[in-house]
Task: inverse folding
């Protein structure tokens, strides 16, 4: 049986920075499961079905990547998928404080390890929330997200003005 890594997130929407991490994780693990959080307490721009569908399209060329929604605790989902490794991207020190807390909580809950990969420098400023904001005000995000995401953002919020 091969090694499976989880790349979890909200992905509202997936950006080129996320894709870079997913693709690089795929070079080191037999299977990468992109786990898309369905959180009833949050009001995302895109439904979980839309986020999963955009991710599936954006990763369709990557042979060892699966995309699946999950809810509840990530460690429970990791157990379900037979994965003991979470892979996350780190952009800057600001990410670190939040990420280390989650990594330590997950390890104390179930022993699952979190491996951090440094974000590619060209995507270090990129986040889903900034993409949503720029798109909402009519900015052009086509160089920052996969084509399918740029299309769906334009359908939802109107295209670049
Ligand atoms: O893209 P995000 O919002 O930074 O991803 C955060 C995510 C989905 C990885 C995190 O919120 C999560 O794992 N949520 C599931 C609930 C859970 O397990 N909470 C305890 C984590 S310490």
Result:
């Amino acid at each position: 049986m091969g090694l499976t890594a989880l790349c979890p997130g909200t992905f509202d929407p997936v950006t080129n920075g996320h894709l870079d991490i997913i693709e690089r994780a795929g070079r080191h693990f037999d299977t990468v499961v992109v786990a898309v959080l369905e959180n009833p307490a949050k009001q995302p721009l895109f439904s979980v079905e839309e986020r999963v569908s955009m991710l599936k399209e954006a990763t369709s060329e990557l042979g060892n990547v699966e995309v699946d929604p999950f809810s509840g605790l990530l460690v429970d989902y990791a157990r379900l998928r037979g994965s003991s490794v979470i892979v996350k991207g780190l952009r800057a020190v600001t990410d670190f404080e939040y990420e280390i807390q989650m990594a330590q909580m997950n390890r104390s809950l179930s022993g699952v390890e979190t491996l951090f990969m440094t974000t590619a420098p060209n995507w270090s400023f990129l986040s889903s929330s900034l993409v949503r904001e720029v798109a909402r005000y009519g900015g052009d995000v086509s160089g920052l997200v996969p084509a399918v995401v740029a299309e769906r953002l334009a359908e939802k919020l109107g295209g670049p003005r």
